[in-house]
User: Fold these one by one.
Assistant:
Number 1:
Amino acid sequence: MSKFQKIFFMLMFAFASLALAQEAIKVDPAIAKYKKTSGISGSVNSIGSDTMNNLMTLWAEAFAKFYPNVKVQVEGKGSSTAPPALIAGTAQFGPMSREMKQEEIDKFEKTYGYKPTAIRTSIDALAVYVNKDNPITGLTLPQIDAIFSKTRRGGYAQDLTIWGQLDLSGTWANKPISLYGRNSASGTYGYFKEHALYKGDYKDTVKEQPGSASVVQGVTEDRYGIGYSGIGYITSGVRAVPLAAKEGAQYFAATMENVIHGKYPLARFLYLYINKAPNKPLDPLVREFCKFVLSQEGQQVVIKDGYMPMPAKVVMEELKKLE
Amino acid sequence: MYIETEELVPQAPVRQKKSRDRIRKAVDHLATGVVTTGGLLVIASIIGLFVLFVFVIAPLWRDAKVTAIAQMPGIQLGIAPDARLLAIDCDEYQQIGLLLTTDGVVQFYDIPTAQPKERFRLPLPAGATLTNAQLSPNGQSLAAGMCTGAIVFAELNYHHTLDGSQRAYSPAVTMVESLQLDSLGQPLEHLAVAGSPNANLIAVAITADRRLVLYTRTVETSLFGAGEALVSQPVVAQLAASPTALAIEQSLGSFYVGLENGALLKYDLQEPSSPRLVENVQAANAAITTLGFLIGERSLVVGDAQGGVNVWFESFDENGLGPRQLRKAHTLAGHRTAVRAFAPSQRNRTFLTGSEDGEIILHFATNQRVLYRSKLPGASVRFIELAPKADGALVVDAQQQILHLSIDNPHPEANWRAFFGKIWYEGYGKPDYVWQSSSGTDDFEAKLSLIPLIFGTLKGTFYALLFALPIGVLSALYVSQFMHPKLRGMVKPTMEIMAALPSVVLGFIAGLWLAPRVQPVVPGILMMLVAIPLVALLFGWLWQKMPKQWTQRLTSGAEIFLLVPVIVLAGWMCISASATIEHVLFGGDFRQWLLDTFRLSYDQRNAFVVGLVMGFAVVPIIFTISEDALSSVPASLTAASLALGATRWQTAVHVILPSASPGIFSAAMVGFGRAVGETMIVLMATGNTPVMDWNIFNGFRTLSATIAVEIPEAPVAGTLYRTLFLAALLLFIMTFIVNTAAEVIRQRMRLKYQRQ
């Protein structure tokens, strides 16, 4: 085999594996394609989740291909910023990576007299990231609780502060674990606290980062770091650790298959909150944007950003909420 | 400018001069007016700011507003004269009320008009009456105990629809199932039920003859859909005293029993068919009369026959070790007589208790605050229900009177204790100062201690000044006293340009670039702190030994430029020798050595890096003001000192420095003010960890960074929003006190030193 042929085959193989990787996640063919309607123009604002920041931007770009006269402004500082913006009317969309609290719904209802409408848009596997050099094979939720929390409600017997306690040997054995997390405005912060810390409290030593990207950046630069963020923010500098729900259970990686089958323990929906008065038609622009998000094209965007599309059954349920 | 022109024209006519005088006077007046107005405006705006802060913060301390809306006898709402009320509830808008009576009737009524509405009758066996009832926390189902020892389950639905702005209701009750709980057929006096009808379910009851009976059902879902129910009626071992109160976790984890002798028992339900007694504590000196959970089901509120109200929860011991045990965390304001009723809020840790003598108290568990306390017009309280949104309450007394209260309770979490005291939070081993202000669930317990933030602010400022003060002052001394005026004219503006660097850029560099690079070479940097001054001294000594014809070729003060490469070289050598130093002095791993020797941890985002970078931002300010102060010392003093034979060094240290000390002091204070208020650098480079120790190698969280991070998420006029304003006020007061003190001290020092 000549050198040229070798390179050719290697390239072919690379393309084939790339195609395979893309084939792994596919939008449910039962989800309808987006149908363009007429008379849609204007501008809308979206304020909320940082996890969904890129996703909203990509949706807005793709949406603008159908309607060049539409402007969508996206701001993402954290899910907790969505309810105040929806209440004040400064935003028409409130992307959130957690469900709204009752208290937030109460405040919305006080202003409008009805509750806000939540639309599930996509699925995220909340990933626990370690540095790419970290050899750890997997973590259980009680272990994660003992690493991040000072209350240890998961029931792990001891506080975990050095990597050696997680059976890492060699130079890792006596290195302190360096913790990265999000600020409290984040829905990811709230979700992680509720599900991985069993509603316990974070340690004071968790370094609070303003966005998902900076958590990943922190873990990339800190060899002994560990942090959490949406799977869409994964880079080559970090590794998403496979997780197990209980001590002694099997580890599952944050893949589409594991998420769909409910095996990955930290999977969640990403929501888009809108202000819809009951028995009244929705503003056409808002309605069309939501329909676009729930279309074949909108769900393709979800894959493009590294998150997971929803099954057709869920999409149907969500479309009904728009009527 | 005007004056100069005048002087340039000496032969001006008198008339013109007079008019110029007038103009000059007018301009003078105008200038005085503008300056005075400006000054007054500054003072007014500072006072305005202060008033605004106080205006926003004051509502935090306001008590809850509780007003009675209506009081009416139950008979008026359609309950039978011989029936007794067992449960009361209302929908989340407080429009429709529900009454359950001993005869098995569920009577709905319209709350605003107090008119009876739909009426349902639970199908009870002939002759049976209800003795006790429990509503599920979500208000969607009810369980009631009967005089035959059986229980019935029913589902509730208010069927609320919104048509325009009008709410319409079609409430309904559906009977789901009934179970025989007590095989001896005794009436059930107390009842606690968790789980759902036709699924996993646990029911505990106390019978009229003071026995504890239990019923558990686990439904195992098989592959073929329909589940198989495993029912068991475990017998609880003999109790030391009669049981008087019950509480059960809706998560089916465990249940609690309060006894007549004040003991509190906890039974674990991991294996539902055989509950295990895991705890037995003396929770009160008298009989326990009420037991119930706060939102989140972690805190248990225990009310007793002497009126005591205490909050218990499980936690590790003080050091965060050992098994979880029930601990009494809060002793709240008590009643004078026995506690008869308890109702938790579904929004936060507020709860309402009612007593035998008809008193009600609205408590907040976390900070032990009494939000409202009043003796009701009616008789002894029998039971209480808080509206789903906790903005109202229904109180039933012994004479079957129903009292409807509206509650406005916007800031229960706030009081002095919450902000500045140690508080025992749920699940913690001991009371502590903690800042964790919000999260994504309703049952989150807000932790609003400002102490860690104040501590972090002082820590950051301390390390920044530790770095900036010596450099700023010493370089000012050198530049003003030893450098040639021509060079000084170049160096000073350059230093001032440094001050123009945006702090967000510095923060970005510190957090993302510097912090990861400092980490591997900490020993080298520590070495630099020793090596660079030594090298500088050595250089000075060598410079003196140099032949005069070489040294005199340079302008005075320019030798510093020869020192620069030497220092850079020394710094570089220290960094490259870092690994060797680490190997020789710290056993090859500095972080490990630090941990083993001083039990200090090394964090990548730490006060050391922030001190360096924040020092960089503060140095130009300290330098400029100190330099001005040093340069403005009268030349006569210098001349006199030199004439008396003092060297330049002696003159600088013994004459100039004391005279300029007021100015240097104010430079330090202005630097302090800048460091206290600095936001972007600490926000980006510290990791914002609210830890409370002085370790230079871990992070901190300042007041300013907290305000910047959390104000966008804080709902306007909410507790967090107002608390952040309180943090801002503290910051304001801190800088205000420091600046005022600095000014006073500076004036005094000036009087003292400038007289000499």
Number 2:
Amino acid sequence: MFRYSLRRIGLMLINLLIITYMCFALIRMLPPPELPQGDPHTTVIMERREAMGYNKPIPVQFGLFLNGIFTRGDWGISDKLYFGQDVATIFTSKLPASMIVNLYSIIWTIPVGIALGIWAALKKNTWIDHTISTLTMVVISVPSFVYAFLIQYVLCYKLGWFPFLMKGGSDYFSWEMFKSMVPAVLSLSFGVIAGFTRVTRAELTEVLTSEFMLLARTKGLTRRQATIRHAFKNCMVVIVPSIFGEFISILSGSFIIERIFSIPGVGQLYLNAINGPDYPIFMMDTVFYTTIGLAAGIVVDISYGFIDPRIRMGSKK
Amino acid sequence: MDKYYERIPQEMFEFAQLDSEIHDEKFKTKARGFFADAMLRFKKNKSSVVAAYIIGFLILFAIVSPLISENVFHYTIEDKDNVYINAAPYIPSIAAKEWGIWDGSMTMNSQSQLQLDMLYAIGQETGLNPVIGEPVATEREEMYRGKPRKVYSYAVKVNTYYKVGVKNMVMSYSEFENIQKWQNETGVQVIFPAVDKRDIYPSKIKDLSSIADNPNIWYQCTDNKNTPKTDSNGNLVPAYCTDKEKEGAPYNSIRIEGDNGDYIYSIAKSGSVLVRVCYYNYFWYTHDSEPNFILGTDTYGRDLFCAIGKGARFSLIFALFVSIINLSIGAFAGAYQGYYGGWVDLICQRLMEILSGMPFIVVTTLFQLYMAAKVGVVGAFLFAFVLTGWIGMANLTRKQFYRFKGQEYVLAARTLGASDKRIMFKHIFPNALGTIITSCALVIPGVISSETSLTYLGIVDLSKFSGTSIGELMKNGQQTMTTSPHAMLYPSIFFSLLMISFNLFGNGLRDAFNPSTRGTED
């Protein structure tokens, strides 16, 4: 198991390196953003670009780039959006907003989603199950920006309960800030609830009809005991890894929700970097998203092995 | 028992059937193939059948709505009206029935008495009264020069289209004449008499240039705040210009009521004329049809009915293309990997891992930056989808091939000398087809969804290619959500319906082709 994990992580790092190199090469081959005429910083910027290796072959540039990251934690200097500021600092200052909004949304949605899923599975093929399943299907299909619109229109505009946009500033745990985050949190929540409901229902219905449940009932357990002690444990094998995956991906935020509610998060930063264009920020965001995506996959895979002793990953049969 | 048979004399035996043929009884029922079977199962799933009909309806909408707009109402997607922006849904014939729907209404809050007067004056001049129903007044006390006084403000429901009233327009002589000709044919008054500021405001106001031009003031005012002057009956006093010196071009068409031929209908400008036109009727003249915006207009003054149809056309066709390309690439790649295994499989798996590790939004952005100039926005978009989209399909097919390639019928075929190609595509592939078809139905909504998200974010701009896209409409609608919710609502409804029904349909299809994935039956 340990060796398997190590191998997976090693493979992930190689993949990450290759993807980073590909993106890096593509970005560096683009002409650097034009400097405004008569800009007083022209010489400094040109010097900086020279130091970044703009006139050297791409692999050399990539070496310089990696060297900067590993030796000094230097991800470059923003050359357009946040002129002259350190990209890593800007980036980390954007991270909390994204994380907090996502965290709030999954903290309350995962229990709700799982509870609904369990309810639907226990009442299988009744109207409760049909209602929950159909609603889940509908909610999953509708994209988050439609929810954002409905929430903004009804809760923020017609009823006036919440502000339209997220409050500025960095007092992330104040009441005012929380209130201004509620619309964004709600918009993100529907999809997560529906996702967990669907997984839980599917998994639990399968477990409930398996043979060991019959055995549990035959040896004299009540339906309740059998469900709680045997069925839940087994269906958690699938649900818990997806919770881990969800927690990893809270880091990445959501492009659309961040734009609609003007959350100063990494998604917003990415969109601004594209429109800038600000390549150093774009590059760091790309590496970040790739890492999150790969890491979430690995965490899910590895956690299966830890949770369920029956799954022996990487062992030879 | 057996012994007794021996005692039976041979001649006692008799052939059961020497003359008649032996054959199995023919099936009474018709044989049912794989697809017919799936179809039967699909039909049992009511929600999927309904979803299929809804998809059909939405596709029909996408085909028909731009045609209706272009041929019946004469506006295309390029028709950007800069006056009727974000205007509410409006159908004149239904609005006339006063049912409260399709009346193009919007509610204007906290309007002063003066603003209300002006709305009524527009109605009086053009004959198109913008005020719907009775204004709701709210009373409020205010201190004015040390004394309390009552101030009224009104919430008034107005027709967005009539509200525009009259606009000043500079046009060429020929255009002016064409409008007159059109007026004579139809009897609809487009051109209204010119006014001069000097006639409107009392002579004690010396500096007229400080008063903003407002073409909707056609009556005499008592001060520079446009307070109307009324005669003894309480009627407005017209202030139309009669100065023939200023007239720009001769006018030989219908005149308004109360005009005995003195009013001039245009003011001379160098090489052109300045005309007051009733915008509603002018729109009628330019489009040869009254404004008929079934779903209202968007931020650019385009007909939403047409724009949604255009956007949906693109989305559907694009999604279909992407799915076909991805499915074929994926199926081939998966088949080769699954069948041959070994190092081909290993290399492909690593490649797929790397490609699927790239965040899709990054891929799209880079492709837009690189290829949009060479192969066009849509081409670059298509490549971005194809680059990572085939992976899911390939994995699926690969799994199926792994599953089937060791089975006896494959072995039998190989023993009979079938080539690899034949085994793959004649023997294994049809068995894997069910799984492949079902995933196809779920690929399309996935593509439409990502396409819409990306156009919503503005990363991909399709407006040059297809006129618009659902994502773009929603992006613009979102920004003006409070004043014109319809501009966001209708694209959202369309898109949500499309997504829901495609997903329901896809799930139904999956259950029909793979009954085993449906979960256990009771």
Number 3:
Amino acid sequence: MVSEFVFATGQYDSGDWDSAPLVPANLIDSMARYTSLPVAPTGAIVALASDDLFRFPLVYLTGHLPVRFTDVERANVRRFVDRGGMLFVDDHNHDIDGAFHKTAIDELSRSVGALTQLPNTHAIYSAFFKFPDGPPNTSHELNGWGDNLVHTHLLAAMRGDRIGVLYSNKDYSSEWGYHPDNKRFLSVDNTKFGVNVIVYALTR
Amino acid sequence: MRSLADRARVIAERGARAVAFAALAILFWRALRPPPPSGVEVAGASIERDLARWTTTAPAEIHVRLDAAPSPLVRDWLRALSRSGMRTHWSAARPLRPVAIVAEPTVEPDGGTRVRLASAVGEPVSIGDAAGLIDSLATGGNAELEMATVEGDLRARGTTYTASTIARDTIALRPVLVLGVAGWESKFTIAALEERGWRVASRLRVAPGVEITQGPLGAIDTSRYAAVVAIDTSAASSADAIARYARSGGGVVLAGNTARLASLSGIAAGSVGGRVPGIAGAVASAAPRTGLGVFPVAAARSDAVPLERRSAAVTVAARRVDAGRVVQTGYDETWRWRMSGGEEAVAAHREWWSRLVSAVAYAPLVRRASTGDVAIDETPLASLIDAVGPATSLDAAPRSNTDRSRTTRLLFAIVVGALLLEWASRRLRGAR
């Protein structure tokens, strides 16, 4: 018997943690579409300050607004990452000088240590689908929204050779924020990198 | 004039007299010669000096009184004297207690030495190596120690013995192969083993025909892997190979309900019972595995050894399968223990998995060429008994000069017989 993978969205006291409500269902759909792994049909919402956080070794975190962790949240995030959990944080603003980016980077650095640029040859880019050029670009980047930059790298806080925190300011939350049925209108499924993130978390 | 027969008779009489006188002369010489030493009793302190003397004087019989188990040198010397025909006995001034000490490499990735001591209860014993005292038992008994490093030889010292040994061998430890579905249990099992120092190869199934792999992969055999961990029933495609691997000497860990696979049920410790949920919240308690769901080992085979229980249910059991070993653990979500357990959970989870694997791992011994100058004496009393037999009290020891008496009696009989013969012959022919 293999326990189901449950896609969990992290809830934190500050900011708008629930700004991308369609992302979980879309990634769950992609997991079911491309893999044979048992996946729970609905996601879960877990408070960073709760002990329930440790029931979900992969937690997705997003938002537009400034992020300030409480002491309990900060301690839990540190313990979560140290024990083998992985936090996937995406800046919903796609704005390098935005409030979320600056405050989230600050909070994550205080919680788990400095975030550094992840090489585009990292295993996460070949965990399931191949992304030889690193993180796939989003339409928001290509359209010049936000900071008008194409971010060529993701950031990460490592634990040994494993990613503890994966940080993106590419705004995947907007890119993947649509109903799964609408995938049929895309020539290329843009959630494939989301599958990589999940498969990487499940295997490394 | 005497006849020819009479002359022959006289010659025979003179011959008989000559034989009698020769025998008397031998008896006289034997009476004057100092007797060889016999029944010598030696205190422990002077034993090496006495052994040297006996080696040259070669007494027929010796007796040694010991106040402690002798050194290997003394024991081998006594054995040599005994084998050379010298009757050798020993007794103890006080009861000598048996002891045994062995050191063997642990089947762990970071090496280490496991020391096992068995000693008679009632005598204090200390265990140490060249660096100093390691531990002691106030009243003796049995002990098992695991040490990361050992300096020189290991010694167990009691009042009446000093036993010594050395870690003579090392092991060749190959990677562990983990098979399962990509999921938290596979991920955290691999993490635990890697963090503990095991080299891990893995094949984790993600989709039909798609596996995430790491490490050296190849045929499942003992030349390649120390152990195989089957996390779940996704190991079905390799089940036959795993069973063959176990029978040929490999170590296998069957987790969760993997033993339900037909090919693996033959090597499993028992059948797989219905899943029993964990106790809510217990994963953070002092008995964290009670908080985990488990498939109990049901209908355990007669040769299976239960290693862990929850109430009446066996949760972990092991058995030998031909040349190999198999552990069946019913837990299928130990990752929850690592993530949600108490402060020690990560280390405890890591140690628990490493123990399971090391319990079955195939780890061929690599003999060291030499033990150097270290004198190994793992069982002093048993070796002494092997060398010269069990202890004999001095009074009970066979101390007779049987050979010497027998020769004397024989010579005396010859003297008497020859004289009687000569006397009778002369009287019968009328001579005086």
